[in-house]
Amino acid sequence: MKIRVGFGYDVHQLQPGLPFWLGGIEVPHTHGALGHSDADVLIHVICDALLGAANLRDIGFHFPDTDPQYKGIDSKRLLAEVMRILRAKGYEISNIDSTICLEQPKVNPHIPAMQRVLAEVMGLEEDLISIKATTTEKLGFVGRREGVAAYATVLITKE
Ligand code: MG
After folding, report:
1. How far is the CA of 1 from the centre of ligand 1 (A)?
2. Which of 10, 17, 23, 132 is 20 to 30 A from 43 in CA distance terms?
3. Does 16 sit behind a cis peptide bond, omega within 30 degrees of 0 on the bond before it?
4. Angstrom distances, CA of residue 13 to CA of 18, 32, 36, 58
5. How much is the pLDDT for 11?
6. How would you label 99-124 residue by residue, b for 16+ Cβ within 10 Å and e otherwise?
7. How far does residue 64's CA lie from ligand 1's centre (Å)?
8. d(CA 54, ligand 1 centre) in Å
9. Which residues sit with Cβ closer than 5 angstroms to ligand 1, an ion?
């Protein structure tokens, strides 16, 4: 069996009055993430980690932010497409671990809903999708509430 690891990192700016899409759900907040798509930073890092694990470049390569067809797109659709590409190459997901870095609002109460939605989109058991959250102790752009960052690692396998 082939076992491969992948890693993803992403950042989006936070701005007042935008919807805040995170982990496939809309989190109630005064600010939302800015981006060409719906700017769902957690889905973006999961996509990048999966693509990286399979050596299939990155999310910007497959869904360029210069392409109008991806303007405002629901990132769940990008994730579903990444899963399709990955499974077409014969890979299955062993597990995902991720961390969201955000000062406000608290992410923890929303994690079960994110896991449910992502498991559904990816066709996986919820137990395979770990989502963690941390502040950065008021340091840096996350601490100043200027942005949201996320990291993900994944393990994929092929028989
Ligand atoms: Mg992004």
Report:
1. 32
2. 17
3. no
4. 11, 8, 12, 20
5. 98
6. bbbbbeeebeebbeebbebbbebbeb
7. 11
8. 19
9. 10, 44
Q: What is the pTM of this model?
A: 0.97
**How is domain 2-158 classified at the CATH fold level?**
60s Ribosomal Protein L30; Chain: A; (3.30.1330)
Q: How far apart are CA 93 and CA 81, in angstroms?
A: 14
- Tokens 């406000």, located at residue: 104
Q: Where are the domains of the chain?
A: 2-158
pLDDT tens profile 39-73: 999 999 999 999 999 999 999 999 998 888 889 99
Question: 159: CA distance to ligand 1 center in Å?
Answer: 31
Q: Record the tokens describing residue 155, joined without a space.
A: 């393990």
